[in-house]
Amino acid sequence: MLSRIRAALVAVLVVGLLVSGYVGYRLFTEEPDREPSVSHVTGTTDDGWQLVTYRGVTVELPADWDRTDTTRCGAESERWGPAGHDPCSMTEGLWFRASATFDATVGPGVHTQPASDTSPDGGWGGYATRGDVVVDVAGTDEAVVRRILQSVSVPI
């Protein structure tokens, strides 16, 4: 009886060592996620626009746009918009979204947007997808929306 208990104890210790070794191996060989969870300015263009990077995706934004605090909005998101603009307004700005949960009603590119209370003349909007990130843009100036979407890139 005592020899069976010792054999079971040795078997448990061997299995424990093997599991610990495997876990240690995975911890030291797994590639860490080094991308920041927030967007940040990484430079400027020759004409003064900001280069903003989020999870490996870089985009050009107007110099007067800032990262917006959306904690008081219904759902927090990584957002940029014109300085002083309502952070919860959907009429102008850029949103970085997850492609896994993004459900578009139109295809990528620039499209007209209907008039609303905050944008009586309507506007422009569109998106571009790069890997796991969707860059979703809206604004009243078609040229700005187009430039932002055309600048979306991922480093090679």
Keywords:
156 residues; alpha+beta; 6-stranded antiparallel β-sheet; 3-stranded antiparallel β-sheet; 2 helices; 24% helix; 32% strand
Structural write-up:
- This protein is an alpha+beta fold and 156 residues long.
- The protein has 2 helices and 9 strands.
- The strands form 2 sheets. The chain has a 6-stranded antiparallel sheet, with helices on one face. It has a 3-stranded antiparallel sheet with strand order 1-2-3.
- A hairpin with a 5-residue loop joins strand 1 (40-44) and strand 2.
- 21% of the residues are buried.
- The mean pLDDT is 86.
Given as residue ranges, the uncertain stretches (5+ residues, pLDDT < 50) are: none
- Strand portion, in percent? 25-35%
Shape annotation: elongated
Biggest beta sheet summary: 6 strands, antiparallel
In percent, how helical is the residue content? 10-25%
Overall average residue pLDDT: 86
What is the C-alpha radius of gyration, as a whole number of Å?
A: 24 Å
What is the end-to-end distance? 65 Å
Reading the helices and strands in chain order gives HEEEEEEEEEH
How many beta-strand segments?
A: 9
Q: What is the structural class?
A: alpha+beta
